[in-house]
Amino acid sequence: MPHSAQNTALTPAQEAERYLENARQILSEKAGKKDGLYKDIKYVKMASGTAYSAALLILDEYLRQREGIHFTKPKSIEDYMIRLTKHDKKLLRILANVYDDLHLAGYYHGTRSVDTIQNGMSRVRQMLTYI
To answer: Which domains are present in the chain?
Structure first.
């Protein structure tokens, strides 16, 4: 079965899991790791963006469940944070860490720190429990 046909049947949680698995695979197969640092920043950025996208998929589903027919897709990280303030402050704190670790440090700045990226990915897995 083609990948696109298969993806239509996935739940938001399954799709987020797929993104996380893709990110893990990019890191393990292409980024290279030595002494707690990744060797190839290009692949760290790619994996970080993919894992961060999983977080946004999770948040969209979480907000859709909470807001029902009033749900509209947030347009910025600030919008996500404001809306989470109304629903779950623990999830808001997790998002703040994911944003810092994966979006800013990993994707935007291209950190080489294995710990930073792994912490971010671990927090995205935590977010999965919310949907």
So the answer is: 10-128 (1.20.120.330)
Q: What is the mean pLDDT of the chain?
A: 94
Residue 2 has pLDDT above 60, yes or no: no
Partners of 33 in the beta sheet?
Answer: 38
CB 131 within 8 A of CB 94: no
Question: What's the token pair of residue 101?
Answer: 């670790």
Sign of CA pseudo-dihedral 33, 38, 42, 45: positive
- Would you say residue 1 has pLDDT above 50? no
The residue to which tokens 């739940």 are assigned: 11
pTM (global) more than 0.85: yes
For residue 62, the one-letter residue type is: Y
DSSP letter at 33 equals: E
